[in-house]
Amino acid sequence: MRAVFSLLYKELSYHRVYPLDLISLAISPFFIVAPFVFVAKAQNENLQLAVALGLIVWYWLSMFFWGVGYGVRDEIEEGIIESLLATPASIRNLLAAKAIDTLLINLYITAALMILLWLLAGIPFHLDWAKFLLLFIVSNFALASLSFVYAAFVLVARQASFAGNLFQEAVGILSGMTAPVSILPKAVRWLSMLIPLTYAIEGARKVAVGQFPYREMAILFVFGVVLLLLGVFFVQKAEGYLRLTGTTGEY
Amino acid sequence: MIECEGLTKTYNVREKPSFFSRGKERRITALRGVSFSISPGEIVGILGPNGAGKTTLLKILSTLLLPDSGRALVEGVDVAQSPGLVRRKIGLVLPSERSLYWKLTAQENLELFGGLYNLPSRKVRERRGVLLELVGLSDFAHVQVEKFSTGMRKRLMIARAMLHEPRLLILDEPTSGLDVQGKREVWTLLRNLATQQQVTLLLATHDMEEAEIVPSRLLIIHQGKICADGSPADIKALSSYKGWIVVDLPSTFSEHDIELPDGMLLHSIESIDGRSRVYISTAAPQTDMPRLFRLFPNATRVERQDISLADSFLAITGDRFENDDAQEEDV
């Protein structure tokens, strides 16, 4: 755990070095989310809240993909990955630190986005905050685990941003980010059931209508555990592949 | 301290693909059955031309790379079987100065790596003070690494590698990119580490001065094989030619104009302002000097020069470009 906290401290220190990035993280999601929210507002207020929550939750996935999955490339591009691998700590420690950092960033983005949507788009987030926070933690656990699997792919493929983009966009549609899963073609609806983001979005919308999303949180937890085991397995395999091929320092 | 037996490593390298083909794959042999051992406290230099296999060997020893076959042990622990244990025993200094977090300060870099070695916070605080003092960076503890000169970064990398008090320090070209002063600072630092803290040093270099000054023992690696092993003086003695004789002549000569007696080899002729400087390598410079005085009665200078490590190294390794081709095969 000491290795994870040391790496987390490094991640947090980098935010201190780039304060403008923190400001950008608070503001720029609004400009991505706002067009969809205003279109929904033109329809009705309930849809507006559902779309806003869908997009906020999708943003969590996006941050994990870039911050954890693709984030491992930061160390590769900086040229420090070999120095890290020469210590007893592993890439899993690095990913865990990046996951905790991303969770904190997601909390920050969510708060900033909700405030901006309330002030600029007039969306009242009357949520049970305790339930929402619980859902946030379980959802972030599942999405972080998914990003571990993507990180293993990035370690081996190195140029994997195309796959990350494609996956996030497809998952966004399939998980009911802006429109409910029920209106998707039957042929692809089963795919939605295999995506943790579907349950995170559904859970957020349940919290918005005053329900406790037990079922969604249980499913997300199971997803989190299974994906974490898979992610750790694949990252271990990827580390072995890097040691075999000697491509650790290449990008 | 280190035992290597029959280490081999090949890489598959694919040529850049075209639109219609995937590109031909080549197998490059980096190491061919490398065996050697290093005792505790030794300072060993691995000397070889680019592409000789130095970095591959160091990466295997530092657990970053798996050998295809053979075995490497660090203090009796197999690097392939127990990489985690080996990592606690070694400190690694990589050639790239980018192997530090540039946005963090020197102190933050050391604290981070102390955490990665799972050292208690108190121990890290102690060690960082001692090490920053040792590498002469105490006054720069709170300065971001990006503000450092190359020499300062290299010294910080050595401090970082020593954080967990390893008994073996592996250094890959520790002075690459440094000016003469910077190199000398690092050499002094390394010698002090070896003598004062009994750290075993294994450093790869292709800097002849470094290879002559720092290590007490050299392994010459070429085409993935160890082709010479001994002290710098032993390596020099391996060359069949024991020295140079430089002859300055008052007019220009070509190679065809000069016929040398047996035991001497015409190395090269430089023409400067209508005069010639002839370089002759010889197995017995002491006895050949009078013969050359007789052969060139007009010579304005006949002077003996000792063979350098570089001369001997080139004699041992030959033409590396010719030999590099021999290491590749199509797959």
Strand and helix map with partners:
The complex is a heterodimer of chains A (251) and B (331).
Chain A: H1 2-17, H2 19-43, H3 45-69, H4 72-78, H5 81-85, H6 91-120, H7 129-157, H8 161-174, H9 186-192, H10 196-208, H11 214-245
Chain B: E1 2-14, E2 25-38, E3 43-47, H1 54-61, E4 69-74, E5 77-78, H2 83-89, E6 90-93, H3 106-116, H4 121-134, H5 150-161, E7 168-172, H6 180-196, E8 200-205, H7 208-213, E9 217-222, E10 225-230, H8 232-238, E11 243-249, E12 264-272, E13 275-282, H9 285-295, E14 301-306, H10 309-317, H11 320-326, E15 328-330
Parallel strand pairs in B: 3-8, 3-9, 6-7, 7-8
Antiparallel strand pairs in B: 1-2, 1-4, 2-15, 4-5, 9-10, 11-13, 11-14, 12-13
Helix pairs in contact in B: 3-4, 5-6, 8-10
Would you write up a description of this structure?
- The complex is a heterodimer of chains A (251) and B (331).
- Chain A is mainly α and 251 residues long.
- Chain A contains eleven helices and no strands.
- Chain A is globular, with a radius of gyration of 18 Å.
- The two termini of chain A are 28 Å apart.
- Chain B has two domains: 2-237, P-loop containing nucleotide triphosphate hydrolases (Rossmann fold, 3-Layer(aba) Sandwich); 240-306, Alpha-Beta Plaits (2-Layer Sandwich).
- Chain B is built from eleven helices and 15 strands.
- Chain B has helices at 54-61, 83-89, 106-116, 121-134, 150-161, 180-196, 208-213, 232-238, 285-295, 309-317, 320-326, and strands at residues 2-14, 25-38, 43-47, 69-74, 77-78, 90-93, 168-172, 200-205, 217-222, 225-230, 243-249, 264-272, 275-282, 301-306, 328-330.
- In chain B, the strands form three sheets. Chain B has a six-stranded mixed β-sheet with strand order 6-7-8-3-9-10, sandwiched between helices. In chain B, strands 5-4-1-2-15 form a five-stranded antiparallel β-sheet.
- In chain B, helix 3 packs across helix 4 (121-134) and helix 5 runs parallel beside helix 6.
- The longest helix of chain B is centred in the middle third of the chain and has 17 residues, at 180-196.
- At the A-B interface, helix 1, helix 5 and helix 11 of A face strand 1, helix 2 and helix 3 of B.
